[in-house]
Amino acid sequence: TWSRIGGTVTGNRIRVPIMDLSIYGLFEDASAAAGSGTVSNIKFSNRAFSPSGRLTRPGAGPQAGAPVLVQTTDISFELSAASSVRIAIYNRAGQLQNILTPGQQMNEGRNVVTWDGRDHSDNPVRSGLYIVSIDAGGEQQQKTVAVVNR
After folding, report:
1. Do the beta carbons of residue 79 and residue 38 sit within 8 Å?
2. pLDDT tens-digit series, residues 99-128
């Protein structure tokens, strides 16, 4: 049996988080029309990251235990149906910092978008907590991520 896992199309690339080792197939779903899917299960690849590249974590570097720079975070989320998705970043004062997707059509299942910690002028944002707001089909979900610039 086949199970839909989703995926986000950006240019000529498809991004999808793979949670289990298995065999996967890639299919085009021409029937995925715009709907009003609900957003759920928002996750970050890094709950804290540094656009300046100053935050490191031990582990998966080229050499065992070597530090890895944490300069971006992948924002993944589930859609219950294909929808137009808007992802915006706000600071804790509620000021809009960046719009990652202004209304991109995304498919049902798990989708992924990357934030590099920059604002709408392409400058690194200040250290602090930021609210990631995902709006799909009129429903909105939010989750907080930390940016650390030392």
Report:
1. yes
2. 999 999 888 888 999 999 999 999 999 999
Nearest-CA neighbor of 106 among 88, 86, 83? 83
Q: Give CA–CA dist 93/60, Å, rounded.
A: 35
pTM summary value: 0.73
Cβ(36)–Cβ(137) under 8 Å? yes
Q: Which residues pair with 18 in a beta bridge?
A: none
Among candidate residues 105, 104, 135, 138, the one with its CA nearest the CA of residue 32: 105
* Percent of residues in the chain assigned helix, strand, coil, to nearest 5: 0, 50, 50
> Got the DSSP string for 19-32?
-S---------TT-
Sheet holding 48-49, edge to edge: 48-49, 139-147, 128-136, 83-91, 96-106
Burial 47-67 (b: 16+ CB within 10 A, else e): eebbbeeebeeeeeeeeeeee
